[in-house]
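User: My instructor asked us to take a sequence, write out its structure as tokens, and then describe one feature of it. I'm not sure where to start. Here is the sequence I was given:
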Amino acid sequence: MVGALVIAALLGGTLAYIFWRERNKARKAEAAVAQASAQAGAFNPVQLQLQAYERLILLCERIALPNLISRVNQPGVSGKDMQMMLTHTIRQEFEHNITQQLYVSTEAWEAVRNLKEQNIHIINQVSSILPADVSGADLNRQLLEMLALNPKASLHGVVAEVLSFEAKKLIR
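Assistant: Let's start with the prediction itself. The structure tokens for your sequence are:
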């Protein structure tokens, strides 16, 4: 009888220990899952910076004059109207992304701002040397010819490289 009591006590103790150990494992697993989900939703400044660089590279592509002209082009529009549409679209795109300056370097933001200003200046300069009754298609053609004859006139490629370089520095 004493032997049976000892066996029952050992068996009960073993079962209690196994139950306690499994319960601790479950608690640790729950804590790990909770911590992982908290970290996933946590503020990650590097991720925000990378997203800002991505958006600004996209902005540069969208306001690059050849891309902009192909997107905004409308047959039958006057040169003045096309000039206004092109400059308005550049300003809109820029304003839509203005908050990205919080996450990028001052130099990167200045490069993007200079690209915007330069593209508006080019559009206005080419428009000013054309006759008042020029069509939108003629203005677009002149803009594209000017860029083809003077590829260094556009900052688009340089600005995109600056943004890409700075984004890659964050990843390293």
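For the description part of your assignment, you could build on this observation: The radius of gyration is 31 Å. Try explaining in your own words what that tells you about the chain.
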